[in-house]
Amino acid sequence: MAQVKTYIRSMRGWWWRDPYFVRYMMREGTSVFVAIYAIVLLVGLLRLTQGEAAFNAWREALASPVSIVFHWILLLTVGYHAYTWWKVAPKTAPDIRIGGRALPPMVITAGGWLATIGTSVLIYVIVRWM
Amino acid sequence: MADKQTIKIEVLRYNPEKDSEPHFQTFEVPFTHDTSVLQGLQYIKDHLDGSLTFRWSCRMAICGSCGKMVNGIPQLSCHTFLRDYYPGKVRVEPLTHFPILRDLAIDQTDFFNNKLPSIKPYVLPREEKPLSAGAYVQTPEQFHKYYQYSQCINCLLCYAACPQYGLNPKFTGPGALALLHRYNADSRDRGWRERAELTNSEAGVWGCTLVGYCSVVCPKDVDPAHAINQNKVNSTLDYFGVLKFLMPRGGA
Amino acid sequence: MQSVQADIVVVGGGGAGLRAAIAAAESDPRLRIALLSKVVPMRSHTVAAEGGSAGVIRTDDSLDSHFDDTVGGGDWLCDQDVVEYFVAHCTEEMTQLDHWGCPWSRKDDGHVNVRFFGGMKVQRTWFAADKSGFHMLHTLFQISHKYASIKRYDEFFCADVIVEDGRVQGVVAIEIATGEFFLFECKAVIICTGGAGRVYGQNTNAGIVTGDGMGIAFRHGVPLRDMEFMQWHPTALPGTGILITEGCRGEGAILTNKDGYRYLQDYGLGPPDPWPRPKAMELGPRDRLSQAFWHEEQKGRTVATPQGQVVWLDLRHLGAAKIHERLPLITEVAKTFAGVDPVTVPIPVRPAVHYTMGGISCNGQAETPLKGLYAAGECSSVGIHGANRLGSNSLAEIVVFGKVAGERAAQYVKAVPAGRSEAARKQADAVQARLLDLLGREKGERLASIRDEMHEAMETGVGIFRKADGMQEACARLASLRERYQRGLKLDDRNRAFNTEWLTAIELGFTLEIAEVIAQSALHRKESRGAHTRLDEFKERDDANYLKHTLAHRVADGPPRIEYAPVTITKSPPRTRVYGGEGKEVVLI
């Protein structure tokens, strides 16, 4: 077959073309913060194995003003991560039908949000009163 | 003759015989309360510029021909109405992530010649059944496992919505993968195993990062994002050799 | 010009074309089958068919019953031997589609469900929600991928057929993306190009339903049969003409006029209750229902809307659950295009042209009088619809006779020697020259003006009800439009690559010829039968003079020559067509 000179449009700047994609990139971006926080906690675990002095030093570092600000940012980003995580979670579940009707995705999402908030509160209480 | 309202329709033009690049051209088009974007384009072609090229057929959102970008969002132009944009401008472009053949017509051959055939889009029968044995028995429960995914009209809006397809043309893409799931989930089909190599690959479900825009733009609520991502679980179980215990006789 | 070698070329990738290609491939996997379609196959108009496809499966049903309903529905203009073959093979085709994956709607026990349809005494319409054509087409298209011997040529516009030594030897097609001409050298051609509804302005059809295959066959001396019988579907949306399926009425919907009155009882289809009841009231045949609308409009009992006069199709009593399960597409269509939710508001509807009962004359084996040329589906007149088609017989027709055409063509090509390439090539060059000339005209009319005038002539002169003077005027106007078309159109688009204006102009040439055939055939049939109803002195059916098929033969630069051929009667001697009457209410599942 003869070839026609088709025109291929560039993908440059694709993600800020549409608000949906911007939100997607923000969502994906929060993974970076989740990773950072995981590393912070892993370092803490490591310090715990290195003895009381090391662990206390780690805790003091976390109490610094810079660290507090950074942790507020982490709370927001990890929170947004959890929020969007549960919003898409129903897409990974199989098709569930109960009583001849499809399970509304909001059931999984809302359940997940509640579980996240509940677990967070529980951990906070445990840590606070330890 | 009553003064009809008019609206500006800005279309992306590209003539492969003359242009090196696409460019916009604006037309002033009369419209009423129920004039669709497609009818606007037809008015331009009939009365203003017969060279404006675009695909269309059924005008009732079932054939899948008329997909376009309308103000940056993939839509079927036959059921998108000019009244919703007035008094603003309506910008019509060919579906993104596809090469432009001419004006608003894209090169669809990647989907029809590569992606669609690659998923084996037909029932691989679980059992050999002669016609004399009659139709299969399929309960409402079995039916609903796949029916939603069989609604795809191949309009390619989801491909225009999928940045992964735009960035990586080897990705099989939402529409074809939804159809792959449709067959795997049909009780008459045994095909998971035969489709597994594709499903489990980067070109298959693992090329998807759950942007989810495909399901938002789908005019038939097929929910390709769901079709693909529930198979990430299946694919993982398959990797660990566990899937076969959950899916006896090779089906889903 | 590029040349492709094939054994069989199928023109048209809808239900009939795909089924024919598959049947030929199954018949002999060594055959080279080229499937040409001017659109990608799933865009073919089969996709828009909604209600369902007939096939006898109930124990209280029989082939004789389906036969009787069909022959009566066709007002005895059917070739009964072909109808006998047809009804005997519907169910196996529906079963085959099921085996291929078609998602037929089922009862709770998992067995296929069947619904009532207009003019049918027993439920026998298999359905896939209200997207039966969509699902059948996608099933056929997808399963066709299994057959390596079927080579698809998507977006190839078939411009003509090559006839040498009294038989078909090839097809000339335009590759739409590039505008290049291709010669497909072959031994048999199966035309499956669909109907010609776009002859009229108000129609349920897609833009592609322009009668190309009919026009091509016609130009090669194949007569077009029974073209005066055009079906108006009684329930289409005003303005766009978008189809609201008969399946609504199969589920129990009713039609009311501006007074909320079920007016069909005034036209021999009553009594209104009990409801639902087969072959009565809203389950009467389409020609009767469309004619009733016309009468109501004359009496001033229809409702005025900005898009024209309408009546109401009321589904409210069916309930939301049933409407959403059985009729999801029309729910969406009604909301999007008419702004009404059928659960709470009746849908405004009026008749629109929907189906072409007539077509390329062929026998029960899909063979046309031209050797090597076959036809199947709406483009053909195989003899099962007669003067009026029953709903759900068309989706069944495309697969039953698609298969027949594929198998016959496969047998034929084995026995026939290869054609003469040189001669075929010369003809193809002539076709190319003629069509490129169309592209290059410097002076002429705009395409749209000729098209719009054709619509106007047809709607006014050859509508639901016809009169001699109206039809004569239409014939005269169409003859003049034919001449204006010959004199030339001026196209804005001079490109070769993807020139849809040029292709539309070629299509318009076919459509104009077919319009003239319809008008002339109608004028010459001096009786009323089925969908051809006259308000002049020929108001009644006249079996003595007109129990015969109309055959229109092409005459160069003139109106077609009209002749007649006998109808084959076997088991069912002509009787009065009766609908309505007393009966028991049926329980719809």
Give a quick rundown of the structure.
By secondary structure, chain A is mostly helical. Chain A is built from four helices and two strands, in the order αααββα. The longest helix of chain A has 31 residues, at 19-49.
How would you characterize the overall build of this protein?
The complex is a heterotrimer of chains A (130), B (252) and C (589). With 130 residues, chain A is mainly α. Chain A contains four helices and two strands, in the order αααββα. Chain A has helices at residues 19-49, 52-63, 65-88, 105-128; strands at 97-98, 101-102. A two-stranded antiparallel sheet of chain A has the order 1-2. Chain A starts with 18 loop residues before the first helix and ends with a helix. The mean pLDDT of chain A is 93. Chain B is an alpha+beta fold. In chain B, the strands form two sheets. Chain B has a five-stranded mixed beta sheet with strand order 2-1-5-3-4. A two-stranded antiparallel sheet of chain B has the order 6-7. In chain B, a hairpin with a 2-residue loop joins strand 3 (67-70) and strand 4. The radius of gyration of chain B is 21 Å and the shape is elongated. The termini of chain B are far apart. With 589 residues, chain C is α/β, with parallel strands linked by helices. Among the domains of chain C are: 233-353, Flavocytochrome C3, Chain A, domain 1 (Alpha-Beta Complex); 430-547, Fumarate reductase/succinate dehydrogenase flavoprotein-like, C-terminal domain (Methane Monooxygenase Hydroxylase, Chain G, domain 1). The mean pLDDT of chain C is 95. Classes of the chains: A mainly alpha (130), B alpha+beta (252), C alpha/beta (589). At the B-C interface, helix 1, helix 2 and helix 3 of B face helix 3, helix 4 and helix 9 of C.
CATH superfamily of chain A: Fumarate reductase/succinate dehydrogenase, transmembrane subunit
| Average residue-wise pLDDT of chain C | 95
Could you name the CATH topology of the domain at 233-353 in chain C? Flavocytochrome C3, Chain A, domain 1
Which strand order spans the largest sheet of chain A, edge to edge or round the barrel?
A: 1-2
Under CATH, the topology of chain A can be stated as: 3 helical TM bundles of succinate and fumarate reductases
For the largest beta-sheet of chain C, the strand count, sense and barrel status come to:
5 strands, parallel
The secondary structure category of chain C is alpha/beta
Largest chain-chain contact?
B-C, 63 and 62 residues
